Q: What sequence folds into this?
């Protein structure tokens, strides 16, 4: 259990550095509505990838779309522009203290909120890519993701 929670959320390194944005003239747009944030503190960090090996950590900046927005308890909406058709998964981190990493209690349990596309279940660690993955076609799309907090 310790090792699996140690990799739980997510994207903090890639997102704090800020991956280069995709070209806005190509592809389509995915609009993501995030619900159930517990407070207005810090940032909501999001990454989206087609690479199973990059999920949920999003370390390979070449294979991800990433963004950070101010957290709002009432909810947050953001977009990924320039998305090409493919199979994607999204990982979210509510970085409440804006330190660019997923804080943990006793080195294993996530202290901050997290979420995944398709509201993929978390069982003894982060979900697998296949559980969070969705297919993106050639039309704009809207998704809703619920934030979760273990502590």
A:
């Amino acid at each position: 259990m310790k090792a699996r929670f140690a990799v739980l959320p997510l994207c903090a390194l890639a997102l704090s550095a800020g991956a280069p944005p995709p070209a806005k003239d190509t592809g389509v747009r995915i609009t993501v509505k995030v619900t159930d944030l517990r407070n207005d503190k810090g940032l909501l960090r999001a990454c989206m990838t087609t690479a199973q090996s990059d999920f949920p950590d999003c370390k390979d900046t070449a294979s991800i779309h990433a963004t950070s927005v101010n957290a709002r308890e009432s909810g947050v909406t953001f977009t990924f522009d320039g998305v090409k058709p493919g199979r994607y998964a999204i990982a979210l981190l509510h970085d409440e203290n804006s330190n660019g990493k997923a804080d943990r209690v006793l080195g294993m349990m996530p202290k901050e909120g997290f979420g995944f596309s398709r509201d993929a279940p978390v069982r003894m660690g982060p979900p697998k890519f296949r559980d969070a993955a969705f297919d993106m076609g050639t039309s704009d799309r809207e998704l809703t993701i619920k934030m979760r907090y273990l502590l």
